[in-house]
Specification:
55 residues, mainly alpha, 2 helices, extended, XkdX, XkdX family protein
Length: 55
């Protein structure tokens, strides 16, 4: 994150976090692409879904 604590994470940060085994899915479409996610984790990115229920 460079030296600014308020800056968005970079691809380098994502690489580091992934190497630590952390979940970096929250970074997709913010600072990395789904393709970069797959390159870093070896997994396809699946967008989260919101379940809606009707009564």
């Amino acid at each position: 994150m460079e030296n600014n604590p308020f800056s968005a994470p970079s691809i380098e940060d994502a690489k580091l976090y992934a190497s630590w085994g952390l979940d970096i899915s929250y970074m997709v479409n913010w600072c990395i692409t789904p393709e970069q996610y797959k390159d870093l984790t070896g997994k396809d990115y699946t967008a989260p879904t919101t379940a809606t229920t009707t009564a």
